[in-house]
Write a structure and sequence with these properties.
The structure is a homotetramer. By secondary structure, the first copy, chain A, is an alpha+beta fold. In chain A, 20% of the residues lie in helices and 44% in strands. Chain A has one domain: Thiol Ester Dehydrase, Chain A, CATH 3.10.129. In chain A, strands 1-2-4-5-6-3 form a six-stranded antiparallel beta sheet. Chain A starts with a helix and ends with a strand. Chains in contact: A-B, A-C, A-D, B-C, B-D, C-D. At the A-C interface, strand 3 of A face strand 3 of C.
Chain lengths: 134, 134, 134, 134
């Protein structure tokens, strides 16, 4: 199973239309098209939709080494509104591949490269649980 | 329009089944039933679903005074897995009702009161935009 | 050795005048008198001084069970300026006494109970290193 | 007055030996030599000392445009211990020069470029208070 296949089992990411488009060691990129269903009361993309997109890329990056890795805590800072019709990209880089508590940064941008949000997260590796990755 | 009616326009919260059940000045409570569609690859509730539930309660609390208030940055820390079939509650309290940058804490618990996650956020009031609240 | 004695070895906390005044299981309280030397360019208490005070209480709370516990990540949100001549108190409560990654909240208040800042932190227990506590 | 001169008034940064070595528009670099006085009970540099170093660079970066800018909330994630005798460098880049709520990232590294900690912060500009900068 590849890491992309593993994350197809993430039903919430599938529900909201977030998908992984690139993966590597300590790296992942995901995207989502902002649609009517992602909007909040102010007609911009809801923070939770952006968070979920970032979290998908983050989870793929920190799990890429094959050890099951859970999120401990994450932070998102909003920079610019994401609007209906925009593709949003989330690029995750595992800054620290620590054996127990890795740290990963994610940048969210739109198609023209404007920064939409930044996301950081610390995670915890379950050393005794290996993912069945290729 | 009540604050609950205003947040019915939050299409993303509606999509994922998060709903406000209580509101007040600087206060809000929301809930969500964890279903198959909220699960991640590890068969527990995806972090983005919990984040969105918390964010709904948070947004209702910080917007309760009638001035449009945007999120600047939010943090979520996961304490315990939320599983399919559990109702999760998010209770938001605006700790600081600042004229420009309020601060709000949200606690997520399950039906028996176990802490699932904590969420904090700083927001920014758009002083010139008033919500049409009752 | 008590936890208070252990933290007397924290030379940085001693340098800035932060001291533990109460300790317990998953709990600690520290205080600091804001003096000229703690001020920033704007003549209010520097954020790093408040952070250090909070961090002392936090470290005492998460280390109170006798297993060496390191900070992974911490967040501080400033609510109100602390001024020269004020005593600031930091009260830390370990919300989650997890075997690996505990979570702790700290509230900073002044003498009259005004909230000055809030601090949260996630930490990591080094299971194989026990502190020599009474 | 230059921004460096302005920050010489930061008595807490002076107390702990943190000093600005480079400044620019939305940019600053600071350094500190880890000495006995910066150590915690575990004989490594206390988190509050690293936080203060980062905060100095951060404050210089977000105040570099001449409008007084206060910190709202900051996050620090520790990656590697800083030890006695090491010079630690904090490099701050204002990622978002927003008119009200800028966002800034700081990386802390040692002399050989190892990442020690990362720091992010959101701040608030007091539009009616201008610093008297050259």
């Amino acid at each position: 199973m590849t890491i992309k296949e593993f994350f197809k089992r993430d039903r919430f990411a599938v529900l909201i239309g977030a998908e992984l488009i690139e993966t590597g060691e300590g790296y992942a990129k995901a995207r989502m098209l902002v649609e009517e269903r992602h909007l909040n009361g102010g007609d911009i993309c809801q923070g939770g939709a952006l968070f979920t997109l970032a979290d998908l890329a983050y989870a793929a990056a920190v799990n890429s080494h094959g050890t099951l890795t859970f999120s401990i805590t994450s932070n998102i800072t909003y920079v610019r509104s994401a609007r209906k019709g925009e593709w949003i990209y989330a690029e995750a880089k595992e800054v620290v591949n620590h054996h127990s508590v890795p740290f990963c940064e994610v940048r969210l941008t739109n198609e023209v490269g404007d920064l939409i949000a930044t996301f950081t997260g610390s995670a915890y590796r379950k050393k005794n649980i290996q993912l069945d990755l290729d």
